[in-house]
Design goal:
The protein is an alpha+beta fold and 326 residues long. The chain has a domain of 210 residues: 2-Layer Sandwich (Enolase-like, domain 1). It is built from 12 helices and 12 strands. The chain binds flavin-adenine dinucleotide (FAD) and iron/sulfur cluster.
């Protein structure tokens, strides 16, 4: 590891001061489970000059509930989300997503803010010491395009640059299905607009902007949500594909649906066609199957990841069925 400065910020203003002072050369550190690994492996072309610890700022690690819904501080650890009775009861997709992330140790350290701000996963990008100087590192090519792309995008490359990396967060699709808002030190952003398709950064956050809280609106009556993850191992494994669904019923018909896949594209991917296929239908195997088929209509797999298309289809189907009333 190279040397860097470390600051324990005691307020949001102080953290922002350091971020501005270092003009893009400082990084926020929360649990450090993603960031420190990157620094040890020296995979970022620009090594940070300073880390700004925000765990020393009081008030960012609480879960609050009011009539509008739930507020989850950016520093709430994934293990606490997985076990919170309010989240398990009314926002099940998020509790299930948090519970499926990494391992118990990592969930005890990793925060929800860090989970949505984590960097993309691509084994060329993550190879230590920048062995593959790809597009994301200012190089001229994407090694995954012609290389081993078995865990890469099944919905094409990101808009103009041609990167096939995927977004690995487990909690992000659940937050999108639940229609969450991200409160930062500067603004409020619908979580769906929070992720960035360009290669420079994975979120729309400005260099001196800090995530403070996730707000999830109270869910309509007769609403249920669910999250399902497909990975090689049951623990300490990133998703190969994951999916969160939220279904609202009106009598025996589906009144509204929100479905989001992740690990299939450069940002979490809301599958609107699948949602549309469900509205007005009865929630059963047939309608869930239709949603699964609609979800993959636009899929464009590459050489080694065709299997992921079938996985995505099955996960949409199963997560929709998991929203059936008990
Ligand atoms: C072995 C292993 C397995 C893993 N498995 C999974 C998995 O299955 N699913 C999954 O989703 N993730 C997984 N992860 C990734 C990671 O551990 C988690 O995403 C974790 O939640 C990151 O949170 P953190 O607090 O440790 O983030 P950090 O490492 O502290 O930060 C990550 C990034 O977010 C930025 N950041 C953090 N907090 C804020 C904030 N409040 N405002 C603005 N920027 C912020 C940091 O600057 C940094 O760039 C795994 C990691 C490892 C090492
Ligand atoms: S997929 Fe993206 S991160 Fe991976 S090698 Fe290609 S450009 Fe780099």
């Amino acid at each position: 590891m190279q040397t860097y400065q470390h600051y324990n910020a005691t307020s949001i203003q102080e953290a922002q001061y350091y971020l501005e002072h270092y003009s893009g050369r400082a990084r926020i550190i929360a649990g450090g489970t993603d960031l420190l690994g990157k620094m040890k492996d020296e995979i970022s072309p620009l090594y940070p000059d300073a880390l700004i610890n925000i765990k020393s700022i009081p008030g960012l690690d609480g879960i609050t509930e009011d009539e509008g819904g739930l507020g989850i501080g950016a520093l709430v650890r994934l293990e606490d989300i997985a076990h919170d009775e309010r989240i398990r009861g009314n926002f099940s997709a998020l509790a299930q997503a948090a519970h499926s992330t990494a391992s118990p140790h990592l969930r005890e350290m990793g925060t929800i803010g860090g989970n949505i701000c984590q960097d993309i996963r691509c084994w060329y990008y993550r190879k230590p010491k920048n062995r593959f100087p790809c597009l994301r590192k200012g190089g001229g090519r994407c090694y995954a395009t012609e290389g081993d792309n078995r865990y890469h995008s099944i919905f094409g490359a990101n808009i103009k640059e041609g990167c096939l990396a995927v977004h690995p967060s487990d909690t992000a699709p659940a937050l999108i299905a639940l229609d969450a808002m991200v409160q930062t030190s500067k603004r409020t952003i619908p979580i769906e607009d929070f992720f960035n398709v360009e290669v420079e950064r994975t979120t729309v956050l400005e260099p001196d902007e800090i995530v403070l809280e996730l707000r999830i609106p109270k869910q309509p009556k007769e609403t249920k949500s669910a999250f399902i993850k497909f990975a090689k191992r049951k623990s300490i494994d990133f998703p190969i594909v994951n999916c969160a669904a939220r279904i609202t019923l009106a009598g025996d018909r589906i009144a509204a649906a929100r479905i989001c896949l992740n690990a299939v594209w450069v940002t979490p991917k809301r599958v609107v066609k699948a949602e549309e296929a469900l509205v007005g239908k009865t929630l059963n195997k047939e309608s869930a199957g239709e949603a699964g088929r609609a979800a993959i209509e636009d899929a464009m797999p590459v050489r080694y990841n065709r299997y992921m298309v079938q996985v995505a289809k099955a996960l949409v189907e199963r997560s929709v069925l998991a929203c059936r009333p008990c």
